[in-house]
Amino acid sequence: MMKLYWSPRSRSFSALWLMEETGQAYERVLIDISKGAQKTPEYLAVNPMGKVPAIKDGETTLAEAAAICAYVAERYPEAKLAPPVGDPLRAKYYYWLFFGPGCMEPAMVQVATKLEMNPVAAGWGEAQRVYDVLDAALAKGPWILGESFSAADIVIGSGLNFAVRLFKMIPARPSFDAYIARCMARPAFQRAEKIAAG
Ligand SMILES: N[C@@H](CCC(=O)N[C@@H](CS)C(=O)NCC(=O)O)C(=O)O
Fold it and tell me: Which ligand 1 atom is nearest residue 10's CA?
């Protein structure tokens, strides 16, 4: 059974939501980051970055929420969390999986810390443009790839839920609010929220 290392009220939420979407049994291992459990030698052997989430599948360990989304989606194809290889949607699926940690997350941190960056040097450019691009992509919906929900929605939906709804780090927009509401309506999201609340 796959193990998920997680901590309440953290970025582990996306991995919890993901595992709940698979419908597969998994074991949750609490790594309480408020108590420093992420820096023990045992946990650093799982994720040398000392961050949650991480997973263990047999002898394989993996961290980074978006990488976990990509891996688990392929591990459990019956959950239909990724367009199959050869499907034209696969390109956009990769785009949004990488857009999360590559553009959305650093833009959020930049806005929260009021850090001035040269937009040409910053890989995510300008935070405003990141939100405009997301806004345009989500305007139609219901999901980031259109009709089909995928693990990319777990990456993008968790990020927007965190930045817009929970921490109000970036201004709400109608497309963001509607998308977050659709994510929140999913039973797997609701189960993950219950677990993540600790
Ligand atoms: N890039 C990582 C970030 C994970 C991360 O920052 N996790 C935070 C919790 S939200 C953490 O483990 N912090 C504990 C620490 O840094 O000591 C991912 O996307 O999974």
Answer: 10
* pLDDT one-digit tens code per residue, 126-154: 999 999 999 999 998 899 999 999 999 99
For the whole model, what pTM was predicted? 0.97
What secondary structure, in 3-state letters, does the chain show?
CEEEEECCCCCHHHHHHHHHHHCCCEEEEECCHHHCHHHCHHHHHHCCCCCCCEEEECCEEEECHHHHHHHHHHHCHHHCCCCCCCCCHHHHHHHHHHHHHHHHHHHHHHHHHCCCCCCCCCCCCCHHHHHHHHHHHHCCCCECCECCCCHHHHHHHHHHHHHHHHCCCCCCCHHHHHHHHHHHCCHHHHHHHHHHCC
Residue nearest to atom 16 of ligand 1 (CA): 51
The closest residue, in CA terms, to atom 6 on ligand 1 is: 51
Name the residue with the closest Cα to ligand 1, atom 5.
Answer: 51
